[in-house]
Design goal:
With about 400 residues, this protein is of the alpha/beta class. It has two domains: about 5-175, Acetylglutamate kinase-like (Carbamate kinase), CATH 3.40.1160.10; about 255-400, 2-Layer Sandwich (VC0802-like). It has helices spanning about 15-30, 45-55, 65-85, 120-125, 155-165, 195-205, 215-220, 275-285, 315-330, 355-365, 390-400, and strands at about 5-10, 35-40, 90-95, 100-105, 115, 130-135, 135-140, 145, 170-175, 195, 225-230, 240, 255-260, 260-270, 295, 300-310, 330-335, 340-345, 370-375, 380-385. A hairpin with a 7-residue loop joins strand 11 and strand 12. It starts with a strand and ends in a 6-residue tail after the last helix. Bound molecules: adenosine-5'-diphosphate (ADP), aspartic acid (ASP) and magnesium ion. Magnesium ion (MG) binds near residues 9 and 151.
Length: about 400
């Protein structure tokens, strides 16, 4: 018996039947004597539909109002779930983000949770209520509704679990756990039984959307064990936790792909001190996060500077780039959005050589051109043409010995 936070994703609450199945699952945990706090996503597809509607209502929807709109998706599922639980004879109450005192900064559309006041939640728990909280949302200091970025209900759940010092944060989704690669891309992917926060952070930041990256940051910081599992069966999923001796010690433990970046290249930039600052300062001032950067070696006193930005910021980055081409003395700026970043991740890489060489050789064998490379202690990423993303994941998965037997 303990305090359990359960988060159900969009597909798990996709219609009333599914909400009913989830209600039964919640009741089972509750009847076993646990305190249960439930965090819900919107029904699958609803957030996309709301965004599409907003874009029809206004060319550039006001960001405050867009968050008010997007938050309704989670409001719907939370109230329906609480209604259903009450109808089945269990005490339940729904709370919107601000009612659950999820306090955020004011970055509409991508707000960060600053803190969570737990008094109200505790009051309900102490009265043996099942507390159903709308995920993905909070309120900024003036009380305006904010949302936490796509996939943000994971972060709501992890942050609430951390604030309540829950025994576990269960993330229920449409796959059986965290796999060595996206099982919807790589049929040979294997479910990982236990994985460290560190590796999960890398996987989440490199395209494995099974957990939003900030949820893993919260869990790691507050030491909350996260159990990623399916809402459609009873199988044990994947435990995300501090590294322990029993974890599989593979050189590479996962392969990811990410189609959310775009590439820009300044051609023939004079090879002088200060040019990089001239390029990256205005981008930073526009809050555009630059990921990979590569500079060719100079020929005739000039070089090319290529970098990637989130695809959603491509137009803004291009507009800034076009403005500074002349000032830089560069020849031109070019861009490409149909790129993908494929990555291999593993803590075992720290003390192994040859991982990069193997990755490059594997991609070369498929005639896949590598456009950019970046590395950290526990991962290697290559930017390639988008059309090869799935193929690259599969061949790398196989080359690093991860395929299911
Ligand atoms: P939810 O709506 O439950 O939040 P998401 O669609 O956000 O679900 O995340 C689950 C999806 O994440 C899976 O359907 C799968 O396609 C994708 N995914 C990507 N990489 C992985 C991985 N390594 N392991 C498991 N799932 C992954
Ligand atoms: N409904 C939000 C989204 O689609 C949040 C979530 O599902 O986690 O991004
Ligand atoms: Mg999700």
């Amino acid at each position: 018996m303990g305090l359990i936070v359960q988060k159900y994703g969009g597909t798990s609450v996709g219609d009333l039947d599914k909400i009913g199945n989830v209600a039964n699952r919640i009741i089972k945990t509750y009847k076993a004597g646990n305190d249960v706090v439930v965090v819900l996503s919107a029904m699958s597809g609803v957030t996309d539909k709301l965004i599409a509607m907003a874009q029809k209502a206004a060319e550039k929807p006001d960001r405050r109002e867009l968050d008010v709109l997007m938050a309704t998706g989670e409001q719907t599922t939370a109230s329906l779930m609480a209604m259903m639980l009450i109808g089945m004879g269990y005490p339940a109450v729904s709370l919107l983000g601000h009612q659950a005192e999820v306090r955020t900064d004011n970055a509409y559309g991508n707000a960060r949770i600053v803190n969570i006041g737990t008094d109200r939640i505790h009051q309900f728990i102490n009265g043996r209520h099942i507390v159903v909280i709308a995920g993905f949302q909070g309120a900024e200091p003036n009380g305006n509704i904010t949302t936490l970025g796509r996939g943000g209900s994971d972060t709501s759940a992890a942050a609430i679990a951390a604030a309540l010092q829950a025994d576990v944060c269960e993330i229920y989704t449409d796959v059986d756990g965290i796999y060595t690669a996206d099982p919807n891309i790589c049929s040979q992917a294997r479910k990982i039984e236990k994985i460290s926060y560190e590796e999960t952070l890398e996987m989440a930041s490199l395209g494995a959307k099974v957990l939003q990256i900030r949820s893993v940051e919260f869990a790691k910081k507050f030491n909350v064990p996260v159990h990623v599992r399916s809402s459609f069966n009873e199988e044990e999923g994947t435990m995300v936790m501090n590294a322990d001796a029993e974890m599989e010690r593979l050189v590479v433990s996962g392969v990811t792909s990410d189609k959310n970046e775009a590439r820009l290249t300044f051609k023939k930039v004079p090879d002088q001190p200060g040019v990089a600052a001239k390029i990256f300062t205005p981008l930073a001032e526009a809050s555009i996060v630059v990921d990979m950067i590569i500079q060719t070696s100079p020929t005739d006193g000039h070089n090319d500077i290529t970098f990637t930005v989130p695809r959603g910021d491509y137009e803004r980055a291009m507009a800034i780039g076009e403005k500074i081409v002349a000032d830089l003395g560069a020849d031109s700026i070019r861009g490409k959005t149909d790129i993908a970043k494929v990555s291999v991740i593993g803590v075992g890489m720290k003390n192994h050589s040859g991982v990069a060489a193997k990755m490059f050789a594997t991609l070369a064998a498929e005639n896949i051109n590598i456009r950019l490379i970046s590395t950290s202690e526990i991962r290697i990423s290559c930017v390639i043409d988008e059309k090869y993303a799935e193929l690259a994941v599969r061949v790398l998965h196989s080359a690093f010995g991860l395929d299911a037997e």
